[in-house]
Design brief:
Shape: globular
Number of helices: 5
Helix content: 25-40%
Largest sheet: 2 strands, parallel
Radius of gyration: 14 Å
Strand order of the largest sheet: 1-2
Structural class: mainly alpha
Order of helices and strands: HHEHHEH
Number of strands: 2
């Protein structure tokens, strides 16, 4: 956690996590662990990455059932419309985590 809050946003992915679920939700959790900080995906993209592109609601359920928030970063999933969607721990925290992980602006322009 210290490494994450010091700016190493990939640090939580190195921590083993064990959550029990069916095959699709387990696949979605695995896919979530590969979403890089600063580059959120939509629920549809998460469903696709988990192997079932039509399972958008299932992707949302994977986020709802996720008890290991920073280690399985469901805060990195947003609605297709650009809205935040939901977050088990509150939208203020989701907004703060996304802002923390936002890549720095390109200074070369």
């Amino acid at each position: 956690m210290t490494a994450y809050y010091d700016g190493d946003f990939a640090a939580p992915s190195g921590v083993a996590v064990r959550q029990i679920a069916g095959p699709f939700i387990a696949a979605a959790w695995s896919a979530l662990r590969l979403v890089p900080a600063g580059y959120p995906v939509t629920y549809g993209q998460l469903a696709e990455r988990a192997g079932r592109p039509a399972a958008v609601r299932g992707a949302a359920q994977c986020c709802v059932r996720n008890a290991a928030a920073l280690f399985v970063p469901c805060h990195r999933v947003t609605r297709t419309s650009g809205g935040l969607g939901g977050f088990r721990y509150g939208l203020d925290l989701k907004r703060n985590l996304l802002a923390r992980e936002e890549p720095p602006p390109d200074l070369e322009d």
